[in-house]
Protein 1
Amino acid sequence: MLNWFLELFDFMPEEGSTWAAEVDWVNNLISAISVICIVGITAVMLYFAWKYRRKSDDQQATSYVTHNATIETVWTVIPTIICIFMFVFGYKLYHEMRNPPAGAMEVNVQGFKWGWNFQYPNGKKSSGELVVPVGEPVKLIMTSSDVIHSFFVPAMRVKEDVYNGNYSYLWFTPIRIGESRIFCTEYCGTGHSEMIGKLKVVSRSEYNDYINDKADLPPAEIGQKLFEANCQTCHTLDGTPKIGPSMQALFSSGKKHEMEGGEEVEVDENYVRESILNSKAKIVKGYQPLMPAFEGQFDDKQIESLIAYLKTL
């Protein structure tokens, strides 16, 4: 009965990811509660306005009431309970959406005025069209080459802002083969409305054919060459500390570095990017601030390649 009632408020596009049904349920629940509340409050307001209207010019004015503790308690407690109820469902889903599973396929995304570029694990690049295999989790690691954009795929129920000089991410597991629209939902200039891409979900065999067609050198291989040329003098790969900390298992799940001063920092793409470009921003405990900053020496693609290589260790 409840689900039938909630479906009355379902105006979302076809579900394309594993959690789309959960997103729709929470969205419909909040919509239904909001409609019920506004209809109920408006009905009571109109009834009181009619019931206590002034019926004649000589009618005595109603005595002024300053407050009613019972009513004030009721209209505070009940909305609070409703808000907590909605928060619990929303946070549970939000937590799932912010924690991609280990082993998710990673694709680098670059937003620009006015389009999207994609780079796959083996180095293949595409523009305007993202191709992913059905039934497999996909993590998009995103940045912008200019202004703030926002990557939105309604069918997958995912949206995340995309920034210049920083990485953001989202993930989803597509459940059906087909095509969906990709939008930018952050006004980014005169071509904002034309910043539309395509998400194409295909079978694993079709994806393999696509990904292996004219692939460039994989980012991890480019990153390995950059590491060997610039980093291995100070950083080892076998866990042995040197001038700087070892890169072994740098991106292992939940890994953190303790900084001078006691702060703990989780190792992710943004931390590594900052450590490369501004090496003295955060100093790992037990090491000296000797690493030179590479600001202006590495471009975004080189940094992404270095990160891709470090993830293989």
Note: The chain is about 35% helix and 20% strand.
Protein 2
Amino acid sequence: MAIKVSGTSVINDSRQLQNIASLDSTTISTIGANIGGGGPPIVDWTSPQATLSSSGTYTIPTSLGDDDYITFYLVSGGGSSRRDGANPKGGYGGAALLLSAKKGTFPSTVTYVIGAGGVISNSGYSPQNGGVSSITISGKTFSVQGGRSNTDGATRTVGVNHFANNGDVSMIDPWIGGGAFYINSDLYGPIRDSKFGGGAGGGRTQGQNLFTGGYSELAGNGGNGSLYGGTTAGQVPGGGGGATSIDSNSNGAAGNMRVYY
């Protein structure tokens, strides 16, 4: 027999809830504690509990319960730009790594490395890739590719996204690579932008005068390029350097690590 309140069913004959207007906090907590499972929580990526710019050791907060999630978001260094008289090339943005797991699966501390930005040399003819950022947990290291110093026909930098539950780690989404800049005039548009990885530095293709650096929603933007000078470096974290035809090309930006819980 259905259970009704003021003539409206709240539990039907199949023992299913119906017409529930709202749940009080005690009921929500009780249901949450008993259903278990589920994936990582929704993270507000704009509000980290910690932002770390130098390599070191991070201590997991003891205030967290074993079933509370902690999430690490790392960005590698952006690549420097490359001088070229006809086709100056902006550096790629550093790729990103997202790793989230229950606090009980972590040791008390983790070590991490922050990748440096790529530095130009030889008047811009010798560019440098961005440094690799990584995190080591119980002897296992997770790393992510630094932004490339751009070359013709290169492919997009790819990041990795690890979500761990009880130690089971899997790659689920590669859409966090740094922005890429393509010299091929058919591939020069918004693909330079990124969400989690750094934006690519601006440059110029033959017949396509594109100087503005790529945009990153959550990491650093790429530096602006120029035809004859006045480029800018990539923004932290992970932006690629802007490019020009003369000897004032720009460096990529260093990465960082952000922590959420």
Note: Residues 16 and 243 are 63 Å apart (CA to CA).
